[in-house]
Amino acid sequence: MTKSRLSGLNKAILGLSFVLIIVSAIVLIWSIACTTDTSTQEEISFLPPIDPQKVQNQDDMTWADYRPIPGRDWNDPSLKPEKGFRLAVVAVDFPNQPFVITRPKGSDPFGNPQVDPIPREQVPQFYADFFTKPLPVNHNLNIHGYWMEQSRGKFGLTQVDAFGPYHMPKPHWWYGLNEYGQNKFTPDGSEASGRLERDCDELWMADTGRDLRQEYDAVLRIYAGYDETGVWMEFGEMKFASKDDIPPEWGNPNPEMPRWVPTRYVEWTSWLAGSQQWGLSSMRQGENSGTIAHELGHFAFRLPDLNNNPYVQPYRRAAVGPWDLMDRGCFNGPGGPHRRWVVPPIAGAAGPPGLMIRNRMACDFIREGELLTLSREGLAKSGLVIADITARSFDPLPRTYTGINVRLDGSEPGDRTPADDPATNPLSPGIPNYNFYSLEVIQRVGFDSFCPDNGVLIAKNKDNLRGRNGGPNQFNSYIWAIDAHPEDINMVDYISPNGEKVMCTIADYRQLNDALFHAGLNSGSQYEYLDEPNRLHFYVVDVHKNQEGILSYTLAIRSLDGSGPQKRGLELKAAAVEVKSTKENLTPVTFSLENTGQSADTDPALHPSDASQHLNSDLYRLEVSIEGKGWKAELPNGLAAVEFGKAAEITVYIRPEKSSSKEATLTLKATSESDPTKHSTAQVKLSL
Which helix (H) or strand (E) holds 198? Predict the structure, then answer.
């Protein structure tokens, strides 16, 4: 080999070595950076949160998630409701579609029934009992128990009678293909126009010899087959890659006709799914329907729907999502919304949530004195209000409330939220015409067991239960939940037939799974909400759980336009601390925070409720810092409420590292939220 060739080869090797050195250095730097980032993240929140947000996906829920209310059985037959309700249950099947529940277990195309078959003649009584009595098959959850729990015994079912079964004169599709452009997709070329209620009631009256409809408060017509609302998606786009992939057994019995039909929200579903009936706010329900409690809300209390259209663009955010029966919360239950095809309905929609404050008010379920009602204008004159709220599944604990309302009173407009364009902002509440805020507490117990989280629910409400929110794809939203996490929740809706992840749209009700507010720092959620246009500041001050496991929160509300006549002041005190080694390497350092302000007389008429006893405190924002190499300090809570003339202990936790300096200085600062010019600082000298 020539000298020139060797020289060139050496240069190439040298260049390659240089490149490898540079690459190795980059990898090393990146590795160090990643390690540093990880340790920094760990050090930022070494203290466990006092109220961690734990959001559970509805898909992952099982019956093991249900927790009965301690010491209270609203299904107890000895409990008589103050107001009774009479329900007739009439069951019908079709010439081409028998009751699903009469078939062998798992034998129909949808994979139902989930239980051993019931003889046809027993079907009416089976469903009458299933929906109204505590039974092993319904895991003791039923609509009578639901309404007794929500009303605290004010309302329940006192008479339930079963009728039938009756054979309908036409096939199921004659009644099911009359919605959303489906009418001409019949097997025989006719245009479907059947109305189940008419034919069902004729059979019922002929059998009984008289018209019984006026003898009941509502008639529940159970028909053989399915509610289309529970099968159009699961046995449409979730099962088949396209409408051309639908096999004959899922298509129209007439091979000359398409195997698909249009449906409510999207272009197509399988003919077999789409030929079923949609409830349409009536009391006609298929065997998979778990939304009977929701429908009873319409019939017994005239509560309107809250639900949006989550599939049509431009997307519009849900109103309250999983937190109320009249929104998609009626889909709550084991397995979530995509398990609503199950017969009998023992999965998704089997465990609807409670009613939010606005709907409990409409139903007259909140007893006098249980709700603290405040005035926005009054807050500016009275000063900060601090009160405790008990979880809505329970009666309020002593010296607490079931919720707080804040009226948006004063000069018009009441709701001063700037109007925006729902066509470009999917999170827009629409027309800013809300009348009051509500604050309540959710605890996953009773019918709230299948809610996705515990915490504080803040919402804006309208006095009028009806009124659309304007803009494209508008809907009725008389309650609007404030989302502590308005960003996309980034949740998988389902896996498509080709294996791709289909994400929840921004309009999906599960976007509000993480909407609740939580107390303390590092909870994963927020502990305050500022509505500057409406001049209000809301705080989640603290969380409590008593011996029975009942959850309550300390909440505070103040006006941005005034702090009241009280004199504000504070003083922080601390003593020197010797840091001793502990198993967790944490040392608590306790400060004394004294409220040196003075209370003042206020007019009890400033608020609709007498809030005098809730004006005797101030709220302080806490900040901690530490000087010293290798020392870390953290607060469990960034807020503290202290009564006038009293003191509270504030604990800061410190953690020195092995390589830390021998001494450090810990500083705690407290500032009055009512008057930020009032603040106090205390320092502690630390030594190892």
Answer: helix 196-208
273 and 165 in a common domain: yes
Using pLDDT thresholds of 50, 70 and 90, give the confidence band for residue 630. very high
Residues 365, 420 within the same domain: yes
Q: What is d(CA 518, CA 541) in angstroms, rounded to the nearest whole number?
A: 9
| Cα 162 to Cα 87, 437, 556, distances in angstroms | 9, 43, 51
Full residue range of the structural domain in which residue 390 is found = 358-559
The average confidence (pLDDT) of the chain is: 92
State the pTM of this model: 0.91
Residue 216 to residue 476: CA distance in whole angstroms:
29
Nearest to 266 by CA among 291, 238, 246, 294: 238
- Give the number of other CB atoms < 10 A from CB of residue 457: 25
CATH number for 597: 2.60.40.2310
Average pLDDT for residues 568-595, to the nearest whole number? 82
Q: How far apart are CA 331 and CA 327, in angstroms?
A: 9
Residue 41 has pLDDT above 70, yes or no: no
Q: Report the candidate in 138, 141, 135, 133 with the shortest Cα–Cα distance to residue 160.
A: 133
Judgement on whether residues 351 and 404 belong to the same structural domain of the protein: no
| pLDDT above 90 as % of the chain | 88
Number of C-alpha atoms within 13 angstroms, CB side, residue 534? 27
| DSSP-assigned letter for residue 425 | -
Phi, psi of 522 (to 5 degrees): 60, 30
In terms of DSSP H, where are the helices of 45-132?
A: 123-132
Are 369 and 445 in a shared domain?
A: yes
Q: Measured on CA atoms in the order 106, 108, 109, 112, is the torsion positive or negative?
A: negative
Enumerate residues 6+ apart whose C-beta is below 8 A from 577.
587, 589, 684, 686
Do residue 157 and residue 250 come from a single domain? yes
Strands 631-634 and 587-594: unpaired
Q: Are residues 179 and 266 in the same domain?
A: yes
For tokens 């309550």, the residue is 552
How far does CA 569 lie from the centroid of its chain? 39
Tokens of 396: 């309020």
98 lies in the same domain as 190: yes
What pLDDT score was predicted for residue 1? 43
Strands (E), 376-489: 385-390, 403-407, 436-442, 455-461, 479-481
